[in-house]
Design a protein that fits this description.
This protein is α/β, with parallel strands linked by helices and 173 residues long. It is 44% helix and 20% strand. It has 7 helices and 7 strands; from the N terminus they run βββααββααααβαβ. The strands form 2 sheets. Strands 3-2-1-4-7 form a 5-stranded mixed sheet. Strands 5-6 form a two-stranded antiparallel ribbon. Strand 2 and strand 3 form a beta hairpin. It starts with 5 loop residues before the first strand and ends with a strand.
C-alpha cells in the first residue's frame, strides 16, 4: 500500500544531462526538469540538487512529512562513485570563474588545474565563491579522501532534504 506521504522520483543524478522528475500520486502532480534548464549550462553534469529544491518549494512540500521515497535510476551504476560534495564544489567553482557555458567551465577547469599550487591558491582568494571552493576542496581531501558510491550520494542528498523518509533506490538498465 502506497501511503499519502510517498513520492516517486526518477533521476539521472550524475554526468551528461542530469535531470529530475517526481510523481506525487496523492496530490496528482508530476514535476520534471533537466538541470540545464535551471543552470543554463548545456549538457550539465552536476547532480539535480537545485531541481530537487525547486520541486520542494513549488509543490509546497513539508519535507518532514514525507515517509517514503522510491527512486528509479536509469543505469546500473555498479562501482560508479563521485566526489563528496560534488555539487557544491562545482557550483562554487562555476560562480568563482564566472563562466556561462559548459565549454567555458571545461576550459576554466583545465586552466585552473594546470597552474602551480601557490598560483591556484592565490587565484581562489579573490572571490567569495573561490574561498568556498577552496574550503570544500580541502575538507574533502582531509575528511573524505575517497569518492562516495553514487547510491550513497543519492541517499545522502535525499536524506538531507527529507530527514524522516525511508529511501529505496532501484537501478535498472
Amino acid at each position: 500500500m502506497i501511503k499519502k506521504t510517498s513520492i516517486f522520483i526518477g533521476t539521472k543524478f550524475h554526468n551528461h544531462d542530469s535531470s529530475f522528475f517526481a510523481i506525487n500520486p496523492f496530490s496528482q502532480s508530476i514535476f520534471g526538469m533537466s538541470t540545464e534548464r535551471k543552470t543554463r549550462y548545456k549538457h550539465d553534469f552536476i547532480p539535480p540538487i537545485n531541481i530537487l529544491d525547486t520541486y520542494i518549494k513549488e509543490e509546497k512540500i513539508n519535507p518532514k512529512e514525507i515517509k517514503k521515497i522510491i527512486v528509479g535510476y536509469p543505469f546500473n551504476t555498479g562501482k560508479l562513485s563521485i566526489e563528496n560534495n560534488f555539487y557544491y564544489l562545482h557550483k562554487n567553482f562555476r560562480l568563482h570563474s564566472q563562466t556561462k557555458y559548459k565549454k567555458e567551465v571545461d576550459c576554466a577547469y583545465r586552466n585552473f588545474w594546470r597552474k602551480k599550487k601557490y598560483s591556484k591558491l592565490f587565484s581562489l582568494l579573490f572571490s567569495f565563491f573561490g574561498i568556498k571552493f577552496l574550503f570544500l576542496f580541502l575538507y574533502n581531501k582531509i575528511f573524505f579522501p575517497k569518492n562516495v558510491p553514487l547510491e550513497r550520494a543519492i541517499k545522502n542528498t535525499l536524506k538531507n532534504r527529507f530527514p524522516n523518509a525511508n529511501i529505496m533506490i532501484k537501478f535498472y538498465d
